[in-house]
Amino acid sequence: MFTIGRLADYAGVTTKAIRHYHERGLLAEPARDSSGYRRYTAQHAIELVKIRTLAQAGVPLARIKDLLDADTDTLTAAIAEIDRDLDDRIARLRRTREQLAELRGGDRLFVSPEVADFLDELSRAGVSERQRSLERDGWILMQTASPEDASVWVAEKRELLGDPEFRALYLEHDAAYGWPPDDPRLPALADRTRSWYARHHSRSEARPVHSEAVARLAEQSQPGASSPAWDRLASLMRG
């Protein structure tokens, strides 16, 4: 006869696990003796070892009760089914690990390789992390709405970033975010920006937009991307 502690030691489980098996109806719970202790028999030990073995093999507790006294064919079929379920779980875990590995690559989990390369170029050019995050979030929305349009736009924007004048304007616009709205540099920046766009034709602006939502997303893709200085700069550029 065993106490619950000795039974747990014998089977290599915890007393908590034994009580849990009692609650789940997997292991019969013996009556208490005159001293108030539950006394377990060799049969309890056999049943507990079978339960432990099935549980360690990955059999869900909900299935163990049906399998404890199953015949060989039933047990074999059930184990084969559980094995297939484990294969599916392993495949899902592998996909999760792959996604986690991609997360270590930062933006590449969320945007196309072309956009990710463009964002890397922004970092190398000295663009602030705030502006870079705004760009990334905007591209996530744009790619979802129209991947074809987004591909054309990012190709052009990467070309533009190679233009020293455009890159200087981009960096100055980025810096202007925190300027006072009455900063005397703003009118000059607005003039230079208008002048640059007047001299450069945009392929993407002339391209028909495949989805009206894209245009709206382009305007809404930078929530919070506003400051008093940027608002005034936009007003100055409208003339």
From TrEMBL:
It comes from the Bacteria. One of its GO terms (molecular function) is DNA-binding transcription factor activity. Gene3D superfamilies: 1.10.1660.10. Pfam families: MerR_1. Keywords: DNA-binding. Residues 1-70 form the HTH merR-type domain. The keyword Methyltransferase does not apply. The keyword Transport does not apply. CDD domains: HTH_MerR-like. This is DNA-binding transcriptional MerR regulator. It comes from Nonomuraea thailandensis.
